[in-house]
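Let's practice the habit of predicting before peeking. Look at the sequence and jot down your guess about where helices and strands might fall. Then scroll down.
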Amino acid sequence: MSSSLGTLFRISTFGESHCAGVGVVVDGVPPRMKLEPADIQIQLDRRRPGQNKLATDRDEADQVEILSGVENGLTLGSPIGLLVRNKDQRPQDYGSMSQIPRPSHADLTYRQKYGIHASSGGGRSSARETIGRVAAGAIAEKFLAEEYGIEIIAWVSSVGEIDAQDVDHANLTRDLVDANDVRCPDPVAAQLMSEQILTARAEQDSIGGVLTCVCRNLPAGLGEPAFDRLEARLAHAMLSIPATKGFEVGYGFAGAKMRGSAHNDPYCFKNGRLATLTNRSGGVQGGISNAEDVYFRVAFKPPATIGLAQQTVDYQGEAATLEAKGRHDPCVVPRAVPIVEAMAALVIADLALIQKMRQPL
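Done guessing? Here is the structure:
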């Protein structure tokens, strides 16, 4: 099982949904960088369950502990170990489901691959695994902000059939994103999205959505063609997040419907450098950042675990009715915002360190 990501800025996550704790080991963090638990906790608080009526009822504070790699508030250059202890486990909620693979969940595929799977929750396929990603991503974000002035902001751009309108991602802030529980900066759309999520929850069902993310102030030159292009690394990272089913950068699939004359980004000279008049390519050309904003979208499917009765079969192939117990999000996209930001930061930090190796000593 691959639980690691990155080349120079490298992480390895550990833990299951109902074990003693989850966490991450982060290697490659430069030494002498100021780092306190509060730098990490701010993003974990945005990801944690139980934060509002749109999220799962599981009550976890998700308090991070720094186990290694930091002394007197400064990074040492050695691996940083981070741990979040699970406090509100309820494995008993899953007893009746242990013999029935949950439709569209990972129970069956994990058993087919390994011959065993965690008996409660989703094990490694649970969204609790992403705690380690968010914690590591917060460190990567701090490094990128201090070294390059890079800003990474994600927001909910659609839930079901409801789309946000006219979001100015060039001037968007996290405070604007967090102004409502849905984390959509369009207040009209946010209200409709909230209603959709609450309706799905009341009906013991679930609903999907899309996140958009913008990465500002990237230097030109990030990305390693041919197989580690910036957009390829971002796609790899985003599609490794539980419940993701789609990724596009720039105009993405809409660009496939256009002619080149309409899609191309002409060059101009502004702010003392060559730039592009438009940014339909999403800040990436030839797999390399061009110093324009990098923006992309990630699609999340409806959560697979729902309370509605589902006609299915058990592991022996016998007909069964599944009414899932436990505490689950009716829609994952509001809590996925910091996860997407974290994964983007991890990819960009790694590629920035690789590019830095090309600079003369």
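How did you do? The two ends are 38 Å apart (CA to CA).
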